[in-house]
Amino acid sequence: MLDKGSLRILGEALEKLDAGFAALPEFDARVPGAERIAETLAATAERLQDNYPYFHPLYAGQMLKPPHPVARLAYALAQWINPNNHALDGGRASSAMEKEAVAGIAEMFGWKEHTGHLCGGGTMANLEALWVAGQLAPGKKILASEQAHYTHARISGVLELPFVAVASDARGRMDIRKLREHIVRGDVGTVVATMGTTATGAVDPLAEILELREKHGFRVHADAAYGGYFGLAGNLGGEARRGFDLLPRVDSVVIDPHKHGLQPYGCGCVLFGDPGVGKLYKHDSPYTYFSSKEMHLGEISLECSRPGAAAAALWATQKLLPLGKGGEFALGLEDCRRAAIDLHERLDKDARFVVAFPPELDIVVFAPRAASVSEASERSRRIFEAAARRNLHLAVAELPVSFFAANLRQMRKDRASLTCLRSVLMKPEHKEWIGRIWEILGEATTECMGD
Ligand SMILES: Cc1ncc(COP(=O)(O)O)c(C=O)c1O
């Protein structure tokens, strides 16, 4: 089931890499014998068997999928050298690759000018964006929707910036009326617009947020950690499309190549439209930046050591699958969205289920129908388990009942939140697998409906 054929390609690439160092005298690296490595690796493989099958289309739960083979191979290849992109001494080639790959992402957002870099993930990237926001507007509030990732409240705490959660509307997006109320109270430094919430993939109304910025003057930071690449998809709904088209106008943006960008974990990206923010990072290092006058990525990043391998992997992926509309990469995202729409429509037509709003990206949330919200919540958990026994892996989420209100019919609202099922359909293969997923979901639901 797991791809092994690509290991041959890695062998060939290693020969090529090695040839670049042919002028050096031979030496014997001190490595333990192959037998001990094999034994240890076999034990590692055995331990790793205890995982959900994230690579398989029947894993349709959380935001998880394996990287593209070219990313995996390029990452592995770079590890024979293990470059460190903190400074050019540690990763000359991979720093250049990082700058090129990040420029490719900036171009996707329509930015001619930018500063930015890769980092550990969406949390680190958002931390950096809010740190810059706090440096430029010390002590001012950070506003994000209730459905924004919890990391924003926590990061604001770390940065000692006041945080306000803005209520979301019945479609999981920031409620613009509520935002306006907070803004007129004053002291707002930054509004975070989530371009694809973690729970439901909802896209905040960026157009209206930017209009408010015109009048009241605050920074707009886009958390596009999950949704960022969807701007390339040709099949978004009108409102989401409008939001993604406006991304060039935000002050900063975060995108996670390790989510929809086909990368191994450890690859987030933060970008700023104003390259001038680079000066905020200024520090003196008598030992790191000695050997070159050229800009080192460590001069514009909070993290110091960072894997050059992550940059090599992203660079290789973008070389193979350029970030253009209508390209292979974009078509993959369109398939994910089609899969989500297909599943949502099947659920919507079936009396056994209650759906929330239609998906804006590729995340579907739904629950089994029952006499009350609390019964439906219990049933969701049972279906989750019954589906897993049949190798279909979904996720469970706790969402406001208001998200389902339009479709609840006679269901008693005896709880403010509903434990529902959530499916992140982030593999293009999901498009062909929805039929099978639907069949298994049906069987699991029949097993649990009678309870
Ligand atoms: C919208 C959003 N922001 C931030 C994060 C945090 O990113 P990471 O888990 O890469 O640190 C996530 C993760 O799911 C997310 O969906």
In short:
By secondary structure, the protein is an alpha/beta fold. Helices cover 40% and strands 13% of the residues.
Write a concise keyword list for the protein shown above.
451 residues; binds pyridoxal-5'-phosphate; seven-stranded mixed β-sheet; four-stranded antiparallel β-sheet; 2 domains; Aspartate Aminotransferase, domain 2; alpha/beta; Aspartate Aminotransferase, domain 1; globular
Q: In words, what does this structure look like?
A:
With 451 residues, this protein is α/β, with parallel strands linked by helices. The protein has helices at residues 6-19, 34-48, 69-79, 92-108, 122-136, 151-158, 176-184, 206-216, 238-245, 308-320, 328-349, 373-389, 430-449, and strands spanning 115-119, 141-145, 163-166, 188-194, 219-224, 252-255, 268-272, 353-355, 363-368, 395-400, 417-424. It has a 7-stranded mixed beta sheet, with helices on both faces. Strands 8-9-11-10 form a 4-stranded antiparallel beta sheet. Bound molecules: pyridoxal-5'-phosphate (PLP). Residues 63, 121-123, 126, 149, 151, 194, 198, 223, 225-226, 256, 268 line the site of pyridoxal-5'-phosphate.
What is this structure's SSE topology?
Elements: H1 6-19, H2 34-48, H3 69-79, H4 92-108, E1 115-119, H5 122-136, E2 141-145, H6 151-158, E3 163-166, H7 176-184, E4 188-194, H8 206-216, E5 219-224, H9 238-245, E6 252-255, E7 268-272, H10 308-320, H11 328-349, E8 353-355, E9 363-368, H12 373-389, E10 395-400, E11 417-424, H13 430-449
Parallel strand pairs: 2-3, 2-4, 4-5, 5-6
Antiparallel strand pairs: 1-7, 6-7, 8-9, 9-11, 10-11
Helix pairs in contact: 1-3, 3-10, 4-10, 5-6, 7-8, 11-13, 12-13
Bound molecules: pyridoxal-5'-phosphate.
